[in-house]
Amino acid sequence: MSLPFPFCYLTLIGFSRLVEIFIDWIYTQKIPTASLNWVEAENDTDSTIYTDDLGAQVLSAKALNFAKRFLAKEYQQIVRNSHVNFNIDAAPGYELVIYAFANFPSTDSFLTFLVDTHCKNWAEALDFNEDGEEGTETKLRSQLPNDFLIRVMTRYNKLRGDPSLEVLNRCSYHEHATKKEKKECEKESRVEDSSTDESDDE
Ligand SMILES: [Zn+2]
């Protein structure tokens, strides 16, 4: 599928950053943990369209797609799990939604993650600039994929019937190499989530 401007431009400038991140991972086994470090190279260009957080969301989804295409299984797992952990309390930006629904299989639970986190974390004010003016997100509304919107409608309907679904389990969206790894990860996630809840209460 060919992408309209500015996505084609961003795809090109994003690609060199993806390669840099991948090569860094080969040498260090680490990927960026802060939004700014994902988009650093982007900031060297004239592009001022995206905030660091939205830019990092898109780049990490592109890194995930890159890993799938190059069959880099271990890298795919670390990028995906890190994306999930980092964004579970954030609404996905629309460029991320548009990119993911155009590039990931419809059965991929990464798409489910975007729908579920949208329904949990999105608020209308997020689409507007700080001064309440229309911004990048409001302009992208008309390009949101139909499949995403239908899934959001369905999800809201399910949430109305069972509000307990609002609590998201990050392990449902992770990739685990083995059942044992999944069990250990679930245990760790529960500890981390409960310590986050406690610090939220303070
Ligand atoms: Zn997990």
Notable features of this structure?
mainly alpha, binds zinc ion, disordered N terminus
Explain this structure:
Helices cover 65% and strands 0% of the residues. The protein is built from nine helices and no strands. The termini are far apart. The protein has one domain (7-168). The protein binds zinc ion. Zinc ion (ZN) binds next to helix 9. The site of zinc ion has 6 residues, from helix 9.
Q: Short description, anyone?
A:
The protein has 202 residues and is mainly alpha-helical.
Integer-rounded radius of gyration: 17 Å
Please give the domain count. Answer: 1
The hetero compounds bound to this protein are: zinc ion
Low-pLDDT parts are: 1-12, 42-49
How many β-strands, per DSSP? 0
Number of helices: 9
Main pleated-sheet profile? none
Order of helices and strands: HHHHHHHHH
Strand fraction equals under 5%
Overall mean pLDDT stands at 81
Secondary structural class? mainly alpha
**Helix fraction bin:** 55-70%
What is the straight-line distance between the termini?
Answer: 48 Å
